[in-house]
Amino acid sequence: MQSSTGIAGGLATRKRRMSQDRSRDRSKGICIIYAFVAAALYALSTPSSKVLLKDVPPTMMAAFLYLGAALGIVLLKLAGVSKPRKSEKLSRQDLPYTIGMVVLDIAAPILLMVGLTRTTASSASLLNNFEIVATSLIAMTIFGEAISKRMWLGIALITVSSIILSCGDWHTLSFSWGSILVLLATICWGLENNCTRMISSKDTYEIVFIKGLFSGLGSLAIAFLCGEKIPGAGLLACILALGILAYGLSIFFYIRAQSGIGAARTSAYYAVAPFVGALLSHVFLGESLSGQYLVALVIMIAGTVVVIRDTLGKD
Length: 315
Known about the structure:
Helices cover 78% and strands 2% of the residues. It has helices at 4-43, 45-52, 58-78, 95-116, 121-127, 130-141, 149-166, 177-198, 204-225, 233-270, 273-285, 291-312, and strands at 167-169, 174-175.
């Protein structure tokens, strides 16, 4: 017969395991909330930028959005927010990927801001999901990652939706230059995602700060070369605040989510951001819902659901 001491020990072990399981579940639940918060914060960027671009040149806008992100990370450090995990600093071997990340982060937001001046914020928000396609195809062709049949289906649906959103006039089969510029921005971010992935095991705070500071300064130099002027103090404060929220804090919560549920699942939950952005565009900017847009929306939702289910490993 089992002794009373052994029974008590077994019960204590089971209780500890149950407590640990509850703690892990609670931690994962918090990380899922972080992922959705990151998506919601980033979703603010497209409709808000559309409004600010009425008074701010696009390249200058992109510059101060990223400088706002760098400022946000500095503020988090000053507030004593702890790091998700301890990591090594970037090394000389990481330099090619770091440079690639910065250069692409200069090009992408400029293309997005210019595109926003030529298309609706709601369409631009949905087109942002083409980043999933670009990231996956670049990962496969350049970095040798495999893509499942289900992911191919999701890529096809998102691509079809993006083509529909890019068509300015179905009768003449003309394309919207604004939409094309947004798609080019997502391709830049898709390549940037793969560059960042190669250094993602290093200090995430250092990576985010470098992204924000040097991408912002690079865009600022281009803005000056193009003859753009720094906006007034009020507008500048609004852009920096948007950069802190939609870029800086969004990336921070994205990293916190990654530390608990992994990169793949975080990316899947983050895919809701374009739909939140599109909804905000309709609610606050009063953009109309055309039949063409609704068809693209349905196809985009279907494609995104397929991608999420593939990423989460669900049947």
